């Protein structure tokens, strides 16, 4: 499996990753680090306590990491949570709606992580 095939499988934007990271070697390095990074776990854990500050910080971190890697869907999903909990901004979603969104992030992240693991095995 090539890096481009991985991006196709996980619904990422390979061209965006190239714009940020410039070369396949760096994309490969950082996409494989994602599954060792606790950014998604941190966000999902924050959802258990519904701690507003931790939800904002974790979602904001995940948004940035995923945007840099061209994982636009995950970045967008995390961005919704970050904006929901941005300090000084009024909440628009109920806790139950946030929980639903976090569950979808968890599912999509798991699919992404599975694709990355499959890619690693193919190397």
Explain the overall architecture.
- The chain has about 120 residues and is an all-alpha fold.
- It has a single domain (about 5-115), classed as Up-down Bundle (Four Helix Bundle (Hemerythrin (Met), subunit A)).
- Helices cover about 80% and strands about 0% of the residues.
- Helix 4 packs antiparallel against helix 5, helix 4 (about 40-50) runs antiparallel to helix 7 and helix 5 packs antiparallel against helix 6 (about 70-85).
- The model has no long low-confidence stretch (mean pLDDT about 95).
Describe, in short, the structure shown:
The chain has helices spanning 3-10, 14-21, 24-34, 39-49, 52-68, 72-84, 95-122.
Specify the CATH architecture: Up-down Bundle
Strand content: under 5%
- Number of helical elements: 7
Order of helices and strands: HHHHHHH
Shape: elongated
Mean pLDDT: 96
Q: Report Rg.
A: 15 Å
Q: What kind of sheet is the major sheet?
A: none
Please write out the topology.
Layout: H1 3-10, H2 14-21, H3 24-34, H4 39-49, H5 52-68, H6 72-84, H7 95-122
Keywords:
single chain, 123 residues, mainly alpha, Four Helix Bundle (Hemerythrin (Met), subunit A), elongated
């Amino acid at each position: 499996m090539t890096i481009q095939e991985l991006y196709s499988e996980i619904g990422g934007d390979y061209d965006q990753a190239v714009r940020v990271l410039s070369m396949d070697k760096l994309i490969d390095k950082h996409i494989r680090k994602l599954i060792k990074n606790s950014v998604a776990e941190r966000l999902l854990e924050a959802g258990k306590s519904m701690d507003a500050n931790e939800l904002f910080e974790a979602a904001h971190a995940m948004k940035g990491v995923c945007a840099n890697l061209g994982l636009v869907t995950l970045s967008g999903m995390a961005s919704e949570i970050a904006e929901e909990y941005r300090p000084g901004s009024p909440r628009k979603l109920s806790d139950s709606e946030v929980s639903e969104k976090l569950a979808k992030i968890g599912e999509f992240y798991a699919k992404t992580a599975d694709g990355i693991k499959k890619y690693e095995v193919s190397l």
